[in-house]
Amino acid sequence: MRDFFQHFRRGVAAEWIAAAMLAGVFAIWSFVPAWRTLRTDFPNYYLAASLYSRGIPLDRVYEWRWFQRQKDHLQIDQRLVGFAPHPPMCALPVLPLASLPPLTAKRVWLILNLAFLALALWLFRRTTDLPWRRLLLLCFLCLLPLRQNFLFGQYYVLILLLLCAGYFAAGRGWKFASGAWLAVAASLKIFPAFFLILFLRKRDWRAAAGLVLTGVALAAISVLLFGWNVHKIFLLEILPRAMHGDLVGPYALEWNSFTGLCHRFLLAEPELNPAPWINSIAAYSIVQAALATFFLFAFLLSTGESETRETQAWEWSTFLALLVVLSSMPTAYHHCVLIFTVIVGVDFLLKRGRHGSAVMLVMFFALACAPMPRFIWLNLQSRLVGDLLIVFLLLLEAPGRASRRVLRFGYAMALVFFAFLTFSNLRALHSRDEDFSRRVPVAIEGYGTLAVSSGGDRLFLDELMTNGYGAVAVPGGVLQPPSANQDVLAVSAAPESVYLEIAGERSRIVRVPATNGGQSGVSDEVADGYDPVVSPDGHWLAYLTDAGGKTEIHGMKDGHRLPLSYSERTGDILEMSFSSDGSLIFASGGAADPHLMLWGYSSGAARRLSEIQGAVRFPALSPDGRWLALSRRESGSWHLFLHDLQNGEEVRFTSGACNAISPSWENSHALVYVSDCGRDLGLGAPVRLDLSKLELSKPELSK
């Protein structure tokens, strides 16, 4: 007996020592660097909150260049920012900190995160039989995810706390409150909303009602705070791409996800993924749907009918791990929520006397969360392997099974679900390769092209690169801004000159010579403003400025200012196009429901082009003034159209569930534009469209 107590005391001491060592590693390796630096993603949340607090509408928060411009103007010390795919509600938790300097705000957020983590552990202590030493040991075993969450200022420790609150409420029989807590988590990150599937499977109507009704209430609050327009853009343009894993780096093995692997091995893209194993939309659609169906229904059909603390622990811990496995873009910090799975799962297994399985669960958790050399976690997909082992282990330890009646119904529903997912994938990937053969090669290594303009015999691209935004001449090279800390956020070219927007604390428009690809440097500063657009002959120039809650259009001809000063609410004026006769067509009305306006130099008045229907942006007048290229949003994607200003006929050129934007005329029979088909949302590639073989005057082309 004395030997037993000695071994027990040694084991307890060893666990305390291991927990203390891991906590020390977290403090030195994670918290201290996070305290000293401002890293993504916190600047993204902070910037959105700061813009809202300044009264700037968030309608364009998902546009890369617009968001970067606001960051540059506010002088936030972060090289690149981007808000997609976050819901608008992600700005709310940081809103009380928006008046603080960015780094100070992050430090407050880090302290709050420590409090969130402590509260989560306290709730675990109330809902499990694990002692404090084991709770701390399992928590800080999540080394890499916790490091990234704190370093990047992410929300996943807060999500963990909300999950714990929901589980605590469920254990006390407060089912409506349980669903409500999950709805709060889902307002920040979408995946907790899928707990509705578990509640419906268990016929837990109160929890389902709590999740749905609280979710609706939070959505209403978000709309009241941030406006309907930004939510409309999120629902139509952002969320569908995010759900299909077609948002940021779709072919990147770094995601350690089935969706990423399916993209990498089954779908081709000329620059990002030129040599997959098989290039087949059908194969991708079937394989991805089969994997999702298998894992989801393996869980649902392993779920019994009884409702006990034991079954509840298994269901919540297993389903949360399943959601991580099925996520389209799970990064390391997503795995902070697996702290819930390992703590609740280990407690469940120990209570059943499954000590070996509990040890294996901890080992698999360590595999998913431990820092690994790049070769291992990239090429061997160690995070995904660890996640899969966790799910398989917990599925094997299911405390109950579905009844025969439920099994028969479940198999039928699995077939329906598989068919639905397959059809959804086919629809999302339809015509994804329609412009691949027309891509313009770009030698510069970058994330993608945001806009294209033609000047003389060259194309000029606004490109997102690893060190910021820059203009690129094709053929040619990078047009360097005057300072390394500034971005080139817009480019408009004419035969002799290229106009650039240089963004820093303010945006300035400068002119560089088009000769030699603009490599001779900046020749002169034209004006304070942004988004310049020049006419094909180079005589007319228009640009935007913001002041007093208004966006104003200003114009110049041959270097002399025009009596043009049209204004609308901040953010409502979007892209513009000048013709050689002085006609200016611009998109107005905001990013959610834009329309086209015409301003004529002779009349000096602006009117709406009501004959051009739908949500339309990115106008580009042809050199002869007859044709207007534009992008129209249909089914959440922006498609390229050509509109005849003489007779109103239209020709449509794109149809995929992706975006064709920023058209520019090379000459009267050639059009270039940017397409993000098969690429990151909004970070496309330049495409050249030869119109010389099309008889554009035939009315049947508009059908």
Kindly describe this structure:
With 703 residues, this protein is α+β, with helices and mostly antiparallel strands. It is 43% helix and 21% strand. The chain has 19 helices and 23 strands. The strands form six sheets. Strands 1-2-3-4 form a four-stranded antiparallel beta sheet, with no helix packed on it. The chain has a four-stranded antiparallel beta sheet with strand order 5-6-7-8. A hairpin with a 2-residue loop joins strand 1 (448-455) and strand 2. The longest helix has 35 residues, at 2-36. It is elongated and about 85 Å long.
Total strands: the figure is 23
The number of helices is 19
In what range is the share of β-strand residues? 15-25%
Terminal CA distance reads 90 Å
With strands numbered from the N-terminus, the spatial order across the biggest sheet is: 1-2-3-4
What is the overall shape? elongated
Mean pLDDT: 90
Relative helix content: 40-55%
Low-confidence stretches: 697-703
Biggest sheet layout: 4 strands, antiparallel
Rounded to an integer in angstroms, the radius of gyration calculated over CA atoms is 28 Å
Class by helix and strand content?
Answer: alpha+beta
